Structure formats: C-alpha cells, structure tokens
Model the fold of this input.
Amino acid sequence: MLIQSDLTELTKGNIIDHFLMIGKIEIRNTKAGKKFLSMELGDKSGSINTNVWNDTAGFDSIADNGKVGDIIKVLGSIDEFQGVPQIKVTSIRLNIPADNVEVQDFLPRSARDPEVMKKELLVRIEEISNTHLKELLKNIFSGERMEKFKTAPAGKSWHHGYIHGLIEHTLEMIKICDLMCDFHPAINRDLLAAGAILHDFGKTEELSYDSSFNYSDKGKLIGHIVICASMIEEETKKLTDFPEGLKNLLIHLILSHQGKLEYASPVVPKTVEAIALYQADELSAKVNAYVGVINSDMTIEGNWTKFIHLAQTDLYKYNLSEESEKKINKSLFD
Done:
C-alpha cells in the first residue's frame, strides 16, 4: 500500500517526493522553440497541473514513453503560477516494478463503504411494489453487472468522479426522489424510483476506470443514455407481459434525465416523474461537484476558488467545521 501525503494537503514550498499518475500529457513548444511537457499529475485526493522543461532530469524518457494512466516518480516542490498551485519538477521517471506501487493506489474512492451501499440499493429495490419493475430491476442488478455498477464512477471528473461514485450518486437520487414523492403523492413512486436506480446504469459501459477515468469506445460512440435505454428494451422482452406503456414511461425517464436537448437528452421531460428525476439528478450532481471543487481548492490562499468553467462561476470556499462556521457567521452577520 502506498504511503505518502496527499496532494491536496500540500502548500507552496512543500517538498514533492511522490508517485503520481499522469492524467494529461502533451508535448508543446515555447515561442522560442523550446520543448516542454504540459502535464496533469494526480493521486487519489486530486490533481495538479505542471510544466516539465526539457532540461529536467528524465524529461526525454517521459516525453518518449509516458502516457495517460502511467505512474511516475516526481521530485520537486509545490510552487504557484498566477495564484494556481503547480509542481516545480527537478526530476521525473517512470514507475518500475521494484517501486511496488499499483494503479489502484491512485484512483479516488468514495468515502462510503461499497458493501453498505450495495445493501441499501437492494433493500430499496425490494421496497418497490410494482411487480414488473421489481422483477426487471432484480434481473439487471445481479451478478457481474451489479459488481460493475458498485465499482464504477459516476463521471470522469465533474461529479462523483471516483470509484463507487455511481452507486453513491444513485442512492442520493433515490432519497431525493422519495422525498419529492412525500411532498407530491400523485407522483408514481415506483416508476420514479426505478428511473433513479437505472438512469445512469449505462455509465458502467460508457466509462473505463481500470487505470484512469476515461470514456470507452462504446461510450463515445453511443453514450450512457442510449446504452441504458437499449438495455431496458432488451431486458423487458425477457419478462412475461411487461406492460408496453410502463416500459415507454421508464425509457422516457432515461432519455430525458439530463433535462435539455443541449445537455444531450434525446427528449425533454414530458411527465411529472421525468421532471422530478431531472431535478434530482441536477441537485445530487452539482452539490457533489461544488463540494469537490471547494475541497480540492482549500490549500490555495483566498476566499474564492478559480473560475470553474462547468459552473460558469468561481465559488466561495470555507471549511464547514464547527469553529470555522462560527467565524463565517461572525464575519457575515456582525
């Protein structure tokens, strides 16, 4: 097991003597024609961008052989450029077997126990009263497919982008949807719950996560929405007398759960359950993403994060511990 301080714990001036994973690597040229590597390096806590110049020890080896997902040994220190942390690299090399480090040491993971989350999901499936939906879900969430679902991230980087992130996101969605059904009894609870459970199931095939988080060929060509809709079509054919109308309503939830055509939904929400699912997805995803951005930015001085393009804003950052919350309240309201 790899033992080293997390990147997110380091501040300007701290020494780097770390194994890190390549998240991005590109050979570029300065205006003067000098080659350098533009890299994103990370561990399970987060990532940091850096430039490695061609006079750095080990530059040629990494430039010729390094690729995304490789583990490298980096020596240097934490520096800043325009207020953004980066690594000032003094030497760099590829990982060798004698280092005894594994890819799994570098993949971020959910703070929640995956087996506990799996039990929660199975319990919620048992609570569905509609026999057609329950049978469909039990057939899908079994064997190898269940294990892939329990392991997969929910995204490449933006929200729940870590091992076991997909099942964590799904459980959040179920709870939000159940709460909405408590407010509005007219909502079909079983249908909405089934939509929440299945909405991102296609990400088990859309994303690859063996060595780094990326999109599979199938994911790029088809996408998780269509993958899941096709699976439901196939699985319902295996069941006796699965109602056509119920199948169409369920597939509509999958096709519309990203809410807008420009967000890659083939259709916009056209049922109460569909709009509830879309908003639940937005809430779970964005809160998780914003918390992740703030947590990864806590070592940078100042009260605000860098501008987040996906959020189209910078974020006010603070540590919601009891003491810091008192300070925030005092500074805001005194």
Observations:
- Residues 327-334 have pLDDT under 50 and may be disordered.
- The first helix runs from residue 59 to 65.
- The chain has three domains: 7-106, 114-291, 302-333.
